[in-house]
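Hey,

The postdoc asked me to send both predictions to you directly instead of through the lab channel. I've kept everything plain text so nothing gets mangled by the mail client. Protein one:
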Amino acid sequence: MRCLIQRVKSASVSVNDHSVSDIGHGLLVFVCATTGDNEQISSKLAKKVANLRIFSDKQGKMNHSVLDVQGEILVVSQFTLAADISNGNRPGFSFAAKNPLAEELYLYFIQILRDTGINVKTGIFGEEMKVSLINDGPVTIWAEIPS
């Protein structure tokens, strides 16, 4: 399972020009389930995201998690994180998990985050979404738990 984590001042997602979700200070997390992933992997990655110390303390060092700063998380499904560009110029997506497994693992990832007490908002799985954000830092981190 893969995710791209961005520390944000704010973020929002819309579908068909209709606002779906928005957050203030926190994390925008793009998530992709890959072939071979399971609930254990999804849970491990969600807990890593919740506890990742990427928010600054008073000395300016990254010592606080989104839990510590009482931030929010916006989770957006992003199957293109599984893109394979090793052959030719058109990406292949055979490494992305197929439905219904992909959606189940996405929803499980969200539930694990919510179980920690974080306010989690989401996009709409499988929809074409417009995502807006104001980066904080910027801080952008790639995270992957291999299957």
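Protein two:
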Amino acid sequence: MRALLQRVSQASVSVDGSMVGQCGAGLLILICAMRGDTATQAEHLAQKIAKMRIFKDEAGKMNRSLLDTGGAALVVSQFTLAADTRTGNRPGFSQAADPETGRALYAHFANCLAALGPKVETGQFGADMQVALVNDGPVTIWLDTEASAPKN
């Protein structure tokens, strides 16, 4: 799986003008299931993200995790993270999981993250969404599970 984390002071996602998910201080997580990804990878990624020390401690150092801060997460599906831009000018998305698998892994990831403690809200899989955020830092981090990591 592939995820793009953005540390935020707030974030929201709307569909057709109606807000479907939001969070305060925490993470906006844009996530894409890739071809060949498994439920085990979704579970591992949820644990990694929940424990990633990217929030400031009392000394201003990035030493605290989402779990440490009691922060929330907004999880938004984004198949375009699978974009292959190596050739031509139009990205290819053939490495993204099929929609049925993508939907299942997206939901499984969000449920696994919530089970670890943070309040988790989500976007709407497959919808045309508008995402608003206030990036804190800015801190933006790209993660790939082992199977989704680019091959050299």
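Summary for protein two, as requested: The mean pLDDT is 95.

Thanks,
C.
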